[in-house]
Design a protein that fits this description.
By secondary structure, the protein is of the alpha/beta class. It is built from 16 helices and twelve strands.
């Protein structure tokens, strides 16, 4: 804007603004970007060309969405998002009404779930292929997170390049195994089952002299997750698959995950997707046909690492947890602000404590794909150990 004003003062009119950009994606950014462009064009009566990078680069996702805007701030041409595209613009038409606007994938501008899903599909495709891999493996628990991750992978790489593995433990329900099988069948990807009960028993036998007289607790729960991680990494090594981890942002924030277990992998596909958005993405996937089994969307989330386990026995309801996490992690709200917003002090204290003490886990997590304004990983400079409190 300062350059435009300076040019006007020198009576040297500008023919066109050209913005050559590498602007990474985050939810809601396109609308903000368009509003800024409209304000510039309409204020200074100058057309604009915006050329944005497209593709995945590690955790950053560049959404493309290049455009041409008229002097009045109207979009007269819009390229596709999350895929390379070329749009030809006639400069003689810059002042016209946008009645024939070229808009590719308009749903990506209107539906947050569609936008985020397209971003994740592109991110998986680019990360896997640019890393030199051609296929992926992941554990299928019968739950919503692994179902979403598998569907993203299938759409990104083709179903022939996805191997889903069920690893039932003594606490896994029949429903979970059936839902994992149904998902693989719906997607058309390869599927196998490796029961971990014999391995779990062998580990327990080895540890029994040291664990004698002690009740089963988190150690035995995490042991199951680590057995699964070891088996999945063995498949990755043997067959050259990239292992995808399936944990969501809500779990990663509060440490509801196991180092060297379900956190094992080369790419954490949905590590920046809160649990409520996981469900929104699943509903988006199923909008035309049932790809993710309906029961997977309706049943209570559970890790199934002990009898009758449910996520909400250990965590606040995800509808509440995700609100606290968004306010704290993305908006910078502290304890007093969260309490003033109506959240119970005990819940706020518990969530903030969990975030603080689990920083060490996140430092060791695989790289994730960034879709919100604040993601874990590179750029987050919090110490593992500190005693700060408000």
């Amino acid at each position: 804007a300062a350059l435009i004003a300076a040019s006007a003062q020198r009576q040297q009119p500008i023919d066109c603004l050209i913005n050559i950009s590498a602007s990474p994606f985050q939810q809601g950014k396109a609308a903000t970007r368009h509003a800024i462009f409209r304000a510039l064009c309409s204020r200074y009566q100058v057309p604009l060309l915006f050329a944005n990078q497209v593709g995945g680069q590690d955790s950053l996702l560049f959404d493309g969405g290049s455009l041409a805007m008229s002097r009045q701030g109207e979009i007269i041409a819009l390229a596709a998002s999350f895929t390379p595209d070329m749009v030809v613009v006639d400069t003689d038409d810059w002042g016209r009404s946008p009645g024939n606007t070229v808009i590719a994938r308009p749903e990506s501008l209107e539906d947050p779930a569609a936008t985020i899903y397209a971003a994740l599909v592109m991110g998986v495709r680019d990360y896997v292929r640019k890393s030199g891999f051609h296929s992926v493996v992941l554990g299928l628990s019968g739950g919503i997170d692994s179902a979403l991750t598998a569907t993203i992978a299938a759409d990104a790489l083709g179903v022939e390049n996805v191997l889903g593995v069920a690893l039932p433990s003594p606490y896994s329900s029949t429903d979970s195994l059936e839902d994992a099988q149904a998902l693989a069948q719906n997607l058309g990807c390869s599927f196998t089952t490796i029961p971990i009960s014999p391995l779990f028993s062998a580990f327990q036998d080895s540890l029994r002299p040291l664990f004698h007289g002690l009740a089963e607790d988190l150690a035995e729960q995490n042991l199951q997750a680590r057995i699964r991680g070891t088996l999945l990494m063995a498949l990755s090594n043997k067959f050259g698959h990239l292992l995808l981890s399936t944990g969501n942002k809500s779990e990663l924030a509060v440490g509801y995950c196991t180092l060297y277990g379900d956190m094992s992998g080369g790419l954490a596909v949905i590590s920046d997707v809160p649990k409520q958005m996981v469900y929104a993405l699943a509903r988006f996937i199923n909008r035309l046909e049932e790809r993710i089994p309906a029961r997977t969307l309706s049943k209570a989330p559970t890790a199934e690492l002990k009898a009758n386990q449910c996520d909400q026995d250990d965590l606040p309801p995800y509808a509440i947890l995700d609100q606290i996490l968004e306010m704290h992690l993305e908006q910078g709200a502290g304890r007093e602000t969260l309490i003033a917003a109506g959240f119970a002090p005990s819940v706020v204290d518990d969530v903030l404590r969990r975030i603080r003490i689990n920083e060490f886990k996140r430092k060791q997590a695989p790289m994730g794909l960034k879709v919100t304004s604040k993601a874990f990983g590179y750029g987050r400079r919090y110490p593992n150990v500190q005693k700060y409190s408000e």
